[in-house]
Amino acid sequence: MSSKILKGKKGIILGVLNENSIAWEVAKKCKQEGAKIIISNAPLAVRFGEVKSLAKEIKVPVIGADVTKIEDLELLVDKAVKYFKGPFDFVLHSVAMSNNIRKKHDYTELNYEYMLKTLDVSAVSFHKLLQVCFQKNAIADWGSVVALTYIASKRIFPQYSEMADAKSLLEGISRSFGLHYAAKNKVRINTISQSPVKTTAGGAIAGFDDFWNYSDQMSPLGNASSKDLASFCVTMFSDYTRYITMQNIYHDGGFSSTGLTDKVISTFNE
Ligand SMILES: NC(=O)c1ccc[n+]([C@@H]2O[C@H](COP(=O)([O-])OP(=O)(O)OC[C@H]3O[C@@H](n4cnc5c(N)ncnc54)[C@H](O)[C@@H]3O)[C@@H](O)[C@H]2O)c1
Protein backbone atom coordinates (compact mmCIF):
# COMPACT_ATOMS: atom_id res chain seq x y z
CA MET A 1 0.00 0.00 0.00
CA SER A 2 1.40 3.39 -0.97
CA SER A 3 -0.06 6.89 -0.82
CA LYS A 4 3.10 8.61 -2.14
CA ILE A 5 3.18 10.93 0.86
CA LEU A 6 6.89 11.57 0.29
CA LYS A 7 6.51 12.55 -3.36
CA GLY A 8 9.00 15.34 -4.09
CA LYS A 9 10.94 14.75 -0.86
CA LYS A 10 14.65 13.88 -0.74
CA GLY A 11 16.54 12.24 2.09
CA ILE A 12 19.52 10.31 3.43
CA ILE A 13 19.20 6.99 5.26
CA LEU A 14 22.25 6.06 7.38
CA GLY A 15 22.80 2.54 8.71
CA VAL A 16 21.69 0.13 5.97
CA LEU A 17 23.83 -2.97 6.61
CA ASN A 18 21.79 -5.99 5.47
CA GLU A 19 18.23 -7.16 4.85
CA ASN A 20 17.51 -7.27 8.59
CA SER A 21 18.56 -3.67 9.22
CA ILE A 22 15.78 -1.31 10.29
CA ALA A 23 17.29 1.28 7.92
CA TRP A 24 16.77 -1.11 5.00
CA GLU A 25 13.02 -1.30 5.68
CA VAL A 26 12.89 2.48 5.98
CA ALA A 27 14.82 2.96 2.73
CA LYS A 28 12.45 0.66 0.82
CA LYS A 29 9.37 2.35 2.30
CA CYS A 30 10.65 5.87 1.52
CA LYS A 31 11.19 4.84 -2.10
CA GLN A 32 7.75 3.25 -2.24
CA GLU A 33 6.24 6.49 -0.93
CA GLY A 34 7.81 8.52 -3.72
CA ALA A 35 10.97 9.92 -2.10
CA LYS A 36 14.37 10.24 -3.76
CA ILE A 37 16.99 8.84 -1.37
CA ILE A 38 20.68 8.10 -0.78
CA ILE A 39 21.72 5.29 1.53
CA SER A 40 24.90 5.30 3.59
CA ASN A 41 27.06 3.20 5.88
CA ALA A 42 30.66 3.03 7.09
CA PRO A 43 33.10 2.60 4.14
CA LEU A 44 34.12 -0.92 5.27
CA ALA A 45 30.49 -2.04 5.47
CA VAL A 46 29.87 -0.61 1.99
CA ARG A 47 32.95 -2.34 0.55
CA PHE A 48 32.44 -5.79 2.07
CA GLY A 49 28.76 -5.97 2.98
CA GLU A 50 25.42 -6.28 1.19
CA VAL A 51 24.77 -2.53 0.97
CA LYS A 52 25.57 -2.20 -2.73
CA SER A 53 23.32 -5.07 -3.80
CA LEU A 54 20.48 -3.65 -1.71
CA ALA A 55 21.01 -0.24 -3.30
CA LYS A 56 20.90 -1.83 -6.74
CA GLU A 57 17.61 -3.50 -5.88
CA ILE A 58 15.85 -0.17 -5.24
CA LYS A 59 18.05 1.83 -7.63
CA VAL A 60 19.52 4.37 -5.21
CA PRO A 61 23.10 5.64 -4.76
CA VAL A 62 25.29 4.55 -1.84
CA ILE A 63 27.77 6.92 -0.21
CA GLY A 64 30.21 5.57 2.37
CA ALA A 65 30.72 7.63 5.54
CA ASP A 66 32.08 6.79 8.98
CA VAL A 67 29.72 8.77 11.22
CA THR A 68 32.49 9.49 13.73
CA LYS A 69 34.54 11.38 11.12
CA ILE A 70 33.56 14.97 10.35
CA GLU A 71 35.37 14.88 6.98
CA ASP A 72 33.32 11.82 5.94
CA LEU A 73 30.07 13.50 7.02
CA GLU A 74 31.00 16.69 5.16
CA LEU A 75 31.65 14.70 1.99
CA LEU A 76 28.38 12.79 2.41
CA VAL A 77 26.39 15.99 2.85
CA ASP A 78 28.16 17.79 -0.02
CA LYS A 79 27.58 14.84 -2.36
CA ALA A 80 23.94 14.60 -1.29
CA VAL A 81 23.31 18.31 -1.94
CA LYS A 82 24.93 17.90 -5.37
CA TYR A 83 22.91 14.77 -6.17
CA PHE A 84 19.62 16.31 -5.02
CA LYS A 85 20.49 19.66 -6.65
CA GLY A 86 19.87 21.48 -3.39
CA PRO A 87 19.01 20.88 0.27
CA PHE A 88 17.31 17.63 1.28
CA ASP A 89 14.19 17.13 3.42
CA PHE A 90 14.84 14.23 5.77
CA VAL A 91 17.55 12.17 7.45
CA LEU A 92 17.41 8.87 9.34
CA HIS A 93 20.22 8.12 11.84
CA SER A 94 20.00 4.34 12.32
CA VAL A 95 23.48 3.75 13.68
CA ALA A 96 24.80 2.08 16.84
CA MET A 97 27.73 -0.08 17.88
CA SER A 98 29.23 -1.31 21.16
CA ASN A 99 32.41 -3.36 21.40
CA ASN A 100 31.77 -3.87 25.12
CA ILE A 101 28.48 -5.59 24.25
CA ARG A 102 30.01 -7.49 21.32
CA LYS A 103 32.84 -8.75 23.50
CA LYS A 104 30.47 -9.48 26.42
CA HIS A 105 32.03 -7.09 28.94
CA ASP A 106 29.63 -6.68 31.86
CA TYR A 107 28.48 -3.13 32.76
CA THR A 108 30.65 -3.31 35.89
CA GLU A 109 33.72 -4.27 33.84
CA LEU A 110 33.64 -1.86 30.91
CA ASN A 111 36.62 -1.15 28.73
CA TYR A 112 36.65 2.67 28.58
CA GLU A 113 38.23 2.92 25.14
CA TYR A 114 35.37 0.83 23.85
CA MET A 115 32.88 2.92 25.81
CA LEU A 116 34.09 6.18 24.27
CA LYS A 117 33.78 4.57 20.85
CA THR A 118 30.24 3.42 21.67
CA LEU A 119 29.23 6.94 22.69
CA ASP A 120 30.90 8.43 19.61
CA VAL A 121 29.34 6.03 17.07
CA SER A 122 25.92 5.74 18.70
CA ALA A 123 25.27 9.26 20.03
CA VAL A 124 27.88 11.98 19.41
CA SER A 125 27.72 11.10 15.71
CA PHE A 126 24.16 12.42 15.72
CA HIS A 127 25.43 15.82 16.88
CA LYS A 128 28.23 15.71 14.29
CA LEU A 129 25.77 14.90 11.51
CA LEU A 130 23.36 17.66 12.58
CA GLN A 131 26.14 20.21 12.99
CA VAL A 132 27.51 19.49 9.52
CA CYS A 133 24.02 19.83 8.01
CA PHE A 134 23.32 22.99 10.05
CA GLN A 135 26.55 24.73 9.04
CA LYS A 136 26.11 23.81 5.37
CA ASN A 137 22.40 24.77 5.27
CA ALA A 138 21.87 21.28 3.86
CA ILE A 139 18.39 20.55 5.26
CA ALA A 140 15.44 22.36 3.66
CA ASP A 141 12.99 24.43 5.73
CA TRP A 142 10.52 22.20 7.60
CA GLY A 143 12.84 19.21 7.12
CA SER A 144 12.67 16.24 9.49
CA VAL A 145 15.45 14.29 11.21
CA VAL A 146 14.88 11.05 13.11
CA ALA A 147 17.25 8.90 15.20
CA LEU A 148 16.39 5.49 16.62
CA THR A 149 16.52 4.71 20.32
CA TYR A 150 15.36 2.22 22.95
CA ILE A 151 13.51 2.57 26.28
CA ALA A 152 16.64 1.36 28.14
CA SER A 153 17.63 5.04 28.07
CA LYS A 154 15.08 5.52 30.88
CA ARG A 155 14.49 2.11 32.49
CA ILE A 156 17.24 -0.38 33.20
CA PHE A 157 17.58 -3.55 31.15
CA PRO A 158 20.85 -5.09 32.40
CA GLN A 159 21.93 -6.70 29.11
CA TYR A 160 21.58 -3.37 27.28
CA SER A 161 24.63 -2.21 29.28
CA GLU A 162 26.40 0.99 28.14
CA MET A 163 24.10 1.35 25.10
CA ALA A 164 21.51 2.67 27.59
CA ASP A 165 23.87 5.58 28.35
CA ALA A 166 24.49 6.15 24.64
CA LYS A 167 20.74 6.27 23.99
CA SER A 168 20.20 8.79 26.85
CA LEU A 169 22.80 11.03 25.24
CA LEU A 170 21.28 10.54 21.78
CA GLU A 171 17.83 11.58 23.04
CA GLY A 172 19.35 14.61 24.80
CA ILE A 173 21.13 15.72 21.62
CA SER A 174 17.86 15.41 19.70
CA ARG A 175 16.14 17.80 22.13
CA SER A 176 19.04 20.27 22.38
CA PHE A 177 19.69 20.48 18.64
CA GLY A 178 15.95 20.52 17.99
CA LEU A 179 15.70 23.97 19.57
CA HIS A 180 18.52 25.44 17.48
CA TYR A 181 17.40 23.88 14.20
CA ALA A 182 13.78 24.90 14.73
CA ALA A 183 14.90 28.50 15.18
CA LYS A 184 17.10 28.42 12.08
CA ASN A 185 15.10 26.48 9.49
CA LYS A 186 12.01 25.05 11.26
CA VAL A 187 13.78 21.69 10.98
CA ARG A 188 12.31 19.16 13.41
CA ILE A 189 14.39 16.58 15.27
CA ASN A 190 12.95 13.56 17.06
CA THR A 191 13.92 10.15 18.37
CA ILE A 192 11.73 7.08 17.93
CA SER A 193 11.91 4.53 20.72
CA GLN A 194 11.33 1.18 19.01
CA SER A 195 10.43 -2.34 20.21
CA PRO A 196 13.21 -4.95 19.96
CA VAL A 197 13.86 -6.22 16.42
CA LYS A 198 16.07 -9.15 15.39
CA THR A 199 18.91 -7.36 13.58
CA THR A 200 22.72 -7.50 13.66
CA ALA A 201 22.94 -4.80 16.36
CA GLY A 202 19.90 -6.12 18.28
CA GLY A 203 21.14 -9.71 18.12
CA ALA A 204 24.40 -8.71 19.85
CA ILE A 205 22.47 -8.20 23.11
CA ALA A 206 22.86 -11.28 25.35
CA GLY A 207 19.68 -13.37 25.61
CA PHE A 208 18.01 -11.37 22.82
CA ASP A 209 15.37 -14.01 21.96
CA ASP A 210 14.06 -14.29 25.56
CA PHE A 211 14.14 -10.52 25.79
CA TRP A 212 12.16 -10.18 22.53
CA ASN A 213 9.54 -12.66 23.81
CA TYR A 214 9.21 -10.89 27.16
CA SER A 215 8.77 -7.55 25.42
CA ASP A 216 6.21 -9.05 23.04
CA GLN A 217 4.14 -10.39 25.95
CA MET A 218 4.42 -7.12 27.88
CA SER A 219 3.19 -5.06 24.91
CA PRO A 220 -0.62 -4.93 24.57
CA LEU A 221 -0.25 -4.75 20.77
CA GLY A 222 2.82 -7.01 20.67
CA ASN A 223 6.27 -5.87 19.52
CA ALA A 224 6.25 -3.40 16.63
CA SER A 225 8.00 -4.75 13.52
CA SER A 226 10.60 -2.87 11.50
CA LYS A 227 8.11 -2.68 8.61
CA ASP A 228 5.67 -0.82 10.86
CA LEU A 229 8.50 1.37 12.11
CA ALA A 230 9.34 2.19 8.48
CA SER A 231 5.77 3.40 7.96
CA PHE A 232 6.03 5.54 11.09
CA CYS A 233 9.35 7.04 9.94
CA VAL A 234 7.72 7.94 6.62
CA THR A 235 4.95 9.72 8.56
CA MET A 236 7.58 11.62 10.54
CA PHE A 237 9.35 12.64 7.31
CA SER A 238 6.08 13.80 5.74
CA ASP A 239 4.33 17.16 6.00
CA TYR A 240 1.66 15.60 8.26
CA THR A 241 3.90 15.90 11.35
CA ARG A 242 5.26 19.43 10.92
CA TYR A 243 4.84 20.54 14.53
CA ILE A 244 6.36 17.49 16.23
CA THR A 245 9.89 18.27 17.34
CA MET A 246 12.27 17.58 20.26
CA GLN A 247 10.23 14.50 21.21
CA ASN A 248 11.07 10.93 22.06
CA ILE A 249 8.15 8.98 20.62
CA TYR A 250 7.42 5.38 21.60
CA HIS A 251 6.71 2.97 18.76
CA ASP A 252 6.48 -0.09 20.96
CA GLY A 253 2.97 -1.59 20.98
CA GLY A 254 2.26 0.02 24.38
CA PHE A 255 5.23 -1.54 26.23
CA SER A 256 6.38 1.77 27.76
CA SER A 257 2.99 2.39 29.45
CA THR A 258 2.36 -1.15 30.68
CA GLY A 259 3.07 -2.43 34.19
CA LEU A 260 1.82 -5.99 33.70
CA THR A 261 -0.17 -8.07 31.22
CA ASP A 262 -2.23 -11.26 31.69
CA LYS A 263 0.20 -13.08 29.40
CA VAL A 264 3.16 -12.26 31.63
CA ILE A 265 1.38 -12.93 34.94
CA SER A 266 0.16 -16.29 33.65
CA THR A 267 3.76 -17.48 33.26
CA PHE A 268 4.06 -17.35 37.10
CA ASN A 269 1.21 -19.85 37.46
CA GLU A 270 2.83 -22.50 35.25
N1 LIG B 1 17.19 -3.90 16.81
C1 LIG B 1 16.59 -3.43 17.87
O1 LIG B 1 16.04 -4.18 18.70
C2 LIG B 1 16.50 -1.94 18.07
C3 LIG B 1 15.54 -1.42 18.96
C4 LIG B 1 15.49 -0.03 19.17
C5 LIG B 1 16.41 0.79 18.52
N2 LIG B 1 17.33 0.23 17.66
C6 LIG B 1 18.29 1.13 17.00
O2 LIG B 1 18.09 1.08 15.61
C7 LIG B 1 19.30 1.49 14.98
C8 LIG B 1 19.63 0.53 13.84
O3 LIG B 1 20.03 -0.72 14.36
P1 LIG B 1 19.57 -2.12 13.73
O4 LIG B 1 18.90 -2.86 14.83
O5 LIG B 1 18.89 -1.92 12.45
O6 LIG B 1 20.96 -2.89 13.52
P2 LIG B 1 22.04 -2.85 12.32
O7 LIG B 1 23.23 -3.55 12.86
O8 LIG B 1 21.44 -3.34 11.08
O9 LIG B 1 22.35 -1.27 12.16
C9 LIG B 1 23.38 -0.61 12.88
C10 LIG B 1 24.16 0.15 11.82
O10 LIG B 1 25.17 0.99 12.36
C11 LIG B 1 26.22 1.01 11.39
N3 LIG B 1 27.46 1.57 11.92
C12 LIG B 1 28.20 1.10 12.98
N4 LIG B 1 29.30 1.88 13.11
C13 LIG B 1 29.24 2.84 12.16
C14 LIG B 1 30.10 3.93 11.78
N5 LIG B 1 31.23 4.20 12.47
N6 LIG B 1 29.73 4.72 10.74
C15 LIG B 1 28.59 4.48 10.04
N7 LIG B 1 27.74 3.46 10.35
C16 LIG B 1 28.08 2.65 11.38
C17 LIG B 1 26.34 -0.47 11.04
O11 LIG B 1 27.14 -0.72 9.89
C18 LIG B 1 24.88 -0.82 10.86
O12 LIG B 1 24.46 -0.52 9.54
C19 LIG B 1 20.35 1.57 16.07
O13 LIG B 1 20.46 2.91 16.52
C20 LIG B 1 19.75 0.72 17.15
O14 LIG B 1 20.23 1.02 18.45
C21 LIG B 1 17.39 -1.10 17.42
TrEMBL record:
Domain of life: Bacteria
E.C. number: 1.3.1.9
One Pfam family named in its UniProt record: adh_short_C2
Keywords associated with the record: Fatty acid biosynthesis, Fatty acid metabolism, Lipid biosynthesis, Lipid metabolism, NAD, Oxidoreductase
Reactions mediated catalytically: a 2,3-saturated acyl-[ACP] + NAD(+) = a (2E)-enoyl-[ACP] + NADH + H(+)
Record: active site: 150 (proton acceptor), 160 (proton acceptor)
GO terms, biological process: fatty acid biosynthetic process
Record pathway: Lipid metabolism; fatty acid biosynthesis
Any GO MF annotation of the entry: enoyl-[acyl-carrier-protein] reductase (NADH) activity
Binding sites annotated in the UniProt record for NAD(+): 15, 21-22, 66-67, 95, 167, 197-201
UniProt family annotation: Belongs to the short-chain dehydrogenases/reductases (SDR) family. FabI subfamily.
Protein name as annotated: Enoyl-[acyl-carrier-protein] reductase [NADH]
Organism annotation: Rhizosphaericola mali
